Amino acid sequence: MNNQYTAVIQSDGAWWIGWLEEIPGVNCQAESRDDLVENLKSALAEMLEMNRDEARKRGATILRESRSPREAARTPSSSPGEWV
Question: Between the CA of residue 41 and those of 4, 18, 35, 44, 46, what are the distances in Å?
Answer without folding.
Answer: 11, 11, 10, 5, 9
